[in-house]
């Protein structure tokens, strides 16, 4: 038998091909690295393909597009190994949650594995810093969470702050301040939103196809309690809100503000891109706005991460008019 393989530098690979009757070892040398079999890479997702196409059409958005391509790849790697959660759901349960305005998903039901959480948190911060989307001071502050043994507890507090914020007061299960994050917490909220998305989106897969979802009429997410940060107009001209945390979609009145409940149509402004693919609904009461993808004449479904980048010029236009996201 041949006791070992020969080594002659990284570009020279020695392979044992066969043994003779006398025990001699026949060696075949491969000297060209190009001769090695190449593993096929993972095919691009439709979202990544669309982002690459968007970069060709709008090169001024290249940095934002490349950052989101990296974030999508990270979230995809993590999400495929997250198990589907299990929680009870029927019309009676959804009806009770609708009455209390309480999101369905309890924190302990999220299939949150601490090792994966730390990985996605750390790599999300690295991606954002690489593209100058995270200030050094914010990076250092949030980095302490990764080293903190109480990371899961911090994430639970962050999750419950939104999940309980809209609950009818007498049904709240959590005391204390449930105010939205302040300006100083904006960077941490953004990082945690992106880092938790693979876990929460996995949970949304359970609820999205269920008929009970139609019972929900509130403007916050029925699954996790998050606010909508995008919307889609369906071919039937319905407006479906899209959660900024878990990406769940649910039907909501097309001309009611999801942030302050203003339903006076004379106080709702609307403007669209020249091709009509995207639209902005802006409230003149709370001065907030929501972007939407118009799916009535589109050739593809809404892709929230793609469409949020494609509509960055609409953000600028809305803010110039005095609105905020």
Structure in words:
This protein is α+β, with helices and mostly antiparallel strands. The protein has 2 domains: 1-35, no CATH class; 46-320, FdhE-like domain (FdhE-like fold). It is built from 9 helices and 8 strands. The chain has helices at 46-57, 62-79, 91-100, 114-130, 136-147, 151-163, 186-207, 304-310, 312-320; strands at residues 13-19, 25-30, 228-233, 239-243, 249-252, 268-272, 278-283, 289-294. The strands form 2 sheets. Strands 5-4-3-8-7-6 form a 6-stranded mixed sheet, with helices on one face. Strands 1-2 form a two-stranded antiparallel ribbon. A hairpin with a 5-residue loop joins strand 1 and strand 2. Helix 1 (46-57) packs antiparallel against helix 2 and helix 4 packs antiparallel against helix 5 (136-147). The longest helix is centred in the middle third of the chain and has 22 residues, at 186-207. It is globular and about 50 Å long.
């Amino acid at each position: 038998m041949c006791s070992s393989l020969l080594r002659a530098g990284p570009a020279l690979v020695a392979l044992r091909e066969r043994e003779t009757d006398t025990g001699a070892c026949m060696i075949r040398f491969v000297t060209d690295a190009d001769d090695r079999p190449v593993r096929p890479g993972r095919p691009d997702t439709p979202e990544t393909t669309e982002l690459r196409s968007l970069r060709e059409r709008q090169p001024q958005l290249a940095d934002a597009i490349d950052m989101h391509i990296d974030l999508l790849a990270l979230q995809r790697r993590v999400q495929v190994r997250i198990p589907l959660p299990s929680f009870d759901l029927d019309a009676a349960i959804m009806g009770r949650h609708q009455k209390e305005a309480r999101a369905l998903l309890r924190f302990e039901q999220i299939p949150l594995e601490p090792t994966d959480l730390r990985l996605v948190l750390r790599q999300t911060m690295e991606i954002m810093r690489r593209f100058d989307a995270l200030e050094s001071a914010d990076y250092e502050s949030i980095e302490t969470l990764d080293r903190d043994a109480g990371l899961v507890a911090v994430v639970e507090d962050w999750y419950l702050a939104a999940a309980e914020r809209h609950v009818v007061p007498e049904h709240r299960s959590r005391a204390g301040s449930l105010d939205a994050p302040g300006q100083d917490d904006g960077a941490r909220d953004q990082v945690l939103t992106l880092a938790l998305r693979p876990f929460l989106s996995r949970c949304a897969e359970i609820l999205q196809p269920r008929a009970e979802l139609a019972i929900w009429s509130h403007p916050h997410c029925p699954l996790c309690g998050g606010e909508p940060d995008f919307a889609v107009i369906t071919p039937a001209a319905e407006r479906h809100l899209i959660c900024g945390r878990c990406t769940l979609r649910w039907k909501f009145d097309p001309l009611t503000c999801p942030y302050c409940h203003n339903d006076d149509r004379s106080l709702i402004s609307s403007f669209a891109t020249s091709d009509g693919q995207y639209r902005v609904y802006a409230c003149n009461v709370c001065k907030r706005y929501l972007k939407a993808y118009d799916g009535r004449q589109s050739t593809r479904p809404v892709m929230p991460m793609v469409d949020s980048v494609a509509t960055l010029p609409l953000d600028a236009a809305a803010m110039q008019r005095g609105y905020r996201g």
